[in-house]
Amino acid sequence: IEVTEVELLSHKARYSCLRPSPLVCPNQSLVEEINIIRRSRHLEGEERSMLSYSRAISVIKAYPRIITQRDLHDLHELPFLGEKLYSMIQEFVKTGRIAEAQTILADSRFQSLSAFDTIYGIGPHTARRLYDLGLRTLEELEQYYEVIPGASNEETISLLEESTNTEAAVEKTIKIGLALRHDLSHTIPRPEVEEINRTVMQELSHIQKGCKSVIAGGYRRGKPQSNDVDIVITHADWELGSQKVKGLCKKLVQRLHEQGLVTHVMHISGFHEHNALRTHHWDSLEKALTVFAWPHNSSWPRVYRRVDLIFAAPEVFWTAVVGWTGSTMFERDLRLWAKQQKGMKFDSSGISRRHDSKLYYPRTERDVFKVLGLVHVHPTMRNA
Ligand code: DGT
Ligand code: MG
Q: Which cofactors, if any, are listed as required (predicted)?
């Protein structure tokens, strides 16, 4: 591993991967107020505007103390806080509210689009299309899609087929999302996340011995409750592991389905994300986005849980773990940093140097940061 010069961490840095950001920050209520406006831009498809709000929120998350009147002049030293954001913060410091956010909250279109957006398979685009059809509530959506709440037929999506993005496939996904919406809206506490991981690895050991996993996603960033479980899996053998994980994803999902654990597969693929390097063995990241019926082997009433299974060869395991730990903004800036400052390409399936496509195989998570010329940021400080 070559070590380049390391940039120091600072809450004033332009890249969020250089700004340690806790799960709950000193200005959390300000963040939540601005987030209402950000969500509205997102739902209305105003992506550029949404990104500026995301960046502003991310900068505030890293600010080390409560913003008061006295701190306002300090804010001019921070990146991504333009005139508009500055006056919003001023308003919040004075009144404890931002009027625009309150207006948005009271808006019935925002309320409908927000509700639609909570359904797995429905994004802002589809939400707006459904709204334009005159639909306003989730109950009306159920009628429109002819879904009986709770009664999801468990073969709605054909298992183990490479996913397509056809209209029919999208509609199937939405139907499942609607049928399971009450279960999937319940967040998952940490002990249950851990138990799901243990069960997955137990089942996997019947197919392939010597595998290991890290629970990534919000869980790894310290969230007490998660919306889904993200498990990154590899084989412990650095030399031979690459061959051993190949094809494991489908085999595992098949087995979990036979055990009655996996009831739906929303998406499954051996994917080729690191496409600058298609000539190399970068088809090594396979993933399945599934629904589990949980708990397993129990007379307790079972609930549905979203579980993502990601398989990586040992050479790219820690890259994949970093790529799936998030937050989304942290990931976005890791990519940008790699590209703009280091002439490198980073994504969850690999790190490479642009000019000669040299590949990097970090052996630890610290090595991932080292390769990118970054100070290691603890997962619980990646909540940018
Ligand atoms: P939550 O909502 O409690 O599950 O919170 P998170 O932060 O775990 O959110 P999640 O599970 O949507 O995503 C976790 C991280 O994984 C996120 O930073 C982005 C990354 N990620 C999610 N989906 C994909 C994907 O399809 N491909 C890749 N490469 N990364 C993904
Ligand atoms: Mg997650």
A: Mg(2+)
